[in-house]
Design a protein that fits this description.
- The protein is α/β, with parallel strands linked by helices.
- It has a domain of 190 residues: P-loop containing nucleotide triphosphate hydrolases (Rossmann fold, 3-Layer(aba) Sandwich), CATH 3.40.50.300.
- It has a six-stranded mixed beta sheet, sandwiched between helices. Strands 2-1-4-5 form a four-stranded antiparallel beta sheet, with helices on one face.
- The longest helix is centred in the last third of the chain and has 18 residues.
């Protein structure tokens, strides 16, 4: 087991009240697994990712355990967490263009990550070649020609590929993907889903894939967790979520799928 979360509760203190964003959330992430987390806006999906990285705002209180490499991340000091973020656990976001620094060339942004997280010193040309190799890994088109492009020159799908390349530059064990396809068109979405599956297969990278779209999650995840109002209401294999849903909310999510789409997903799960 790579990551284990036990009874995670997150509360946000407001001026005259408090908001419980997560309540007694427990889950496991295995090596080489793609775990899907599905829920509507406000269900606590993004809060979960930020809690794992200890990036919650100052008005948040958090309890429970987040166990990684036999240590509870919640007990680590900020200096110790800085060694975990990026190098062990990294994250890509919903808005790929917004996650990139607008005034810096995309190649330089990847090189910056390489310099920060690699111990071996390399010259400028070696770093450039490694950055180009990473862009090739994420199927970025003509990386040699577009190495000096700025983020605003990229499509949403291309920008997300750069963000994934930056994440891979850290050589992490876990990738947190917070709705990474929700702002993309259907073609770019499919490319990113196939890319994440390819990375999972080839590099044995474990992924927590967050989405509000059950169809999207079903395409690449082997297990699914359903969140509602900060609580896990159902978790199971993708196959059983679709064929034997237990909770009324899960059944409602499945019912909203187009019938032809639902049939396609069932066929994919059964290997037909």
């Amino acid at each position: 087991m790579l990551l284990q979360i036990n009874n995670l509760t997150v509360e946000f203190k407001m001026k005259d009240s408090k908001i419980i964003a997560l309540k007694n959330v427990s889950m496991k992430l295995n090596e080489n697994q793609i775990l899907g987390i599905v829920g509507e806006s406000g269900s606590g999906k993004s809060t979960l990712c930020l809690a794992i990285l200890k990036l919650l705002p100052s008005n948040a209180t958090i309890s429970g355990e987040i166990i990684y490499q036999n240590q509870n991340l919640l007990n680590l000091k900020e200096k110790e967490m800085q060694k975990i973020r990026g190098k062990h656990i990294t994250m890509i976001f919903q808005n790929p263009v917004g996650s990139l620094f607008p005034l810096k060339k995309i190649g330089d942004q990847i090189i910056e990550v390489l310099q920060l997280h690699q111990n071996e010193k390399k010259n400028k040309n070696e770093l450039k070649q490694e950055a180009i190799h990473l862009l090739n890994q994420v199927l970025f088109p003509t990386p040699e020609k577009r190495f000096n492009d700025y983020p605003h020159q990229l499509s949403g799908g291309m920008a997300q590929k750069v963000a994934i390349a930056k994440a891979l530059a850290c050589k992490p064990k876990i990738l947190l993907a917070d709705e990474p396809t929700s702002s993309l068109d259907s073609i770019a979405e499919q490319e990113i889903l196939e890319l994440l599956k390819k990375i999972n297969d080839e590099q044995k990278l474990s992924i927590i894939f967050i989405s509000h779209n059950l169809n999207t999650v079903a395409q690449i995840c082997d297990h699914i967790i359903v969140l509602k109002n900060g609580e896990i209401i159902e978790k199971n294999t993708t196959e059983k979520i679709f064929t034997q849903p237990q909770h009324p909310y899960t059944k409602k999510l499945i019912h909203t799928l187009n019938k032809n789409l639902f049939r396609m997903i069932q066929n994919k799960i059964s290997g037909e």
